[in-house]
């Protein structure tokens, strides 16, 4: 039986054999190691179904090549445009959904760029 992150000792309802649990993509399942009987359910992470639009703003050093490259990567703009973006102070660099915002945030933070995400972003 599966429940709230705990796995309990399980036996197959068909043959009494041991059940092994596994996760594959968004599927969570158990399968009998003896007869092959199985049952599965979906377990979609919340970040994948979050439909909110998030706004990412950042602040960094416009003279730091690493900061400029990070902004360039997330905005798709060239080096000069990204440097000008950083000169503005807190600048808008991305608007999107949670999974994309997490990737953008990770790129910026790993380069040492300060980010602000609105509304509150709980997927970090």
Write up this protein.
With 124 residues, the protein is of the alpha+beta class. It folds into 2 domains: 2-43, no CATH class; 48-118, Ribosomal Protein L30, Chain: A. The chain has helices at residues 46-49, 65-75, 79-87, 98-110; strands at residues 2-3, 6-7, 19-24, 27-32, 38-42, 54-59, 91-96, 114-118. The strands form 3 sheets. A 3-stranded antiparallel beta sheet has the order 3-4-5, with no helix packed on it. A 3-stranded antiparallel beta sheet has the order 7-6-8, covered by helices on one side. The mean pLDDT is 92.
Question: What features would you highlight for this structure?
Answer:
alpha+beta; 124 residues; 2 domains; 31% strand; 4 helices; Ribosomal Protein L30, Chain: A
According to CATH, what is the class of the largest domain?
Alpha Beta
Poorly predicted regions are: none
**N to C succession of SSEs:** EEEEEHEHHEHE
Classify the helix fraction into a percent range. 25-40%
Report the total helices.
4
Q: Radius of gyration in whole Å, from Cα?
A: 22 Å
CATH topology-level fold name of the largest domain: Ribosomal Protein L30, Chain: A
Secondary-structure-based class equals alpha+beta
Question: Per the principal axes of the C-alpha atoms, what is the gross shape?
Answer: rod-shaped
Major beta sheet, specifics? 3 strands, antiparallel
Tally of strands: 8
Summed over residues and divided by their number, the pLDDT gives a mean of 92
Q: Strand sequence of the main sheet, in spatial order?
A: 3-4-5
Note the gap between the termini: 30 Å
Q: What's the CATH architecture name of the largest domain?
A: 2-Layer Sandwich
CATH homologous superfamily identity of the largest domain: Ribosomal protein L7/L12, C-terminal domain/Adaptor protein ClpS
Provide the domain count: 2
